[in-house]
Amino acid sequence: MTDLDDLFKPENKFTVPVSIHLSPTDELKLQKFLNLHYLGDVDANELVNGKFRPKYPEKETEEFKNTVRNISMGYTAYIEVEFNEKGITTFGVVK
What we know:
The protein has 95 residues and is α+β, with helices and mostly antiparallel strands. 33% of the residues lie in helices and 32% in strands. The protein has three helices and five strands.
């Protein structure tokens, strides 16, 4: 068997990367959840002189700021896809 034969051997199970991004609505819901957890209030900003300012700047730790920054990033998850002999798929999450 050659290296190419090994590379293209018959298989029916694959690990596939999937990009995940929250919708703007879901991102806002998560933001409010994090605000409540870290700051004790779902609304973390207030309007002052026509500009939004943090309501609780003393509570905005580096951990909070990093967490808020992380929720707008996309994520890659890996799922296992298996095809049966009829081409029907089953999925599983790879941990």
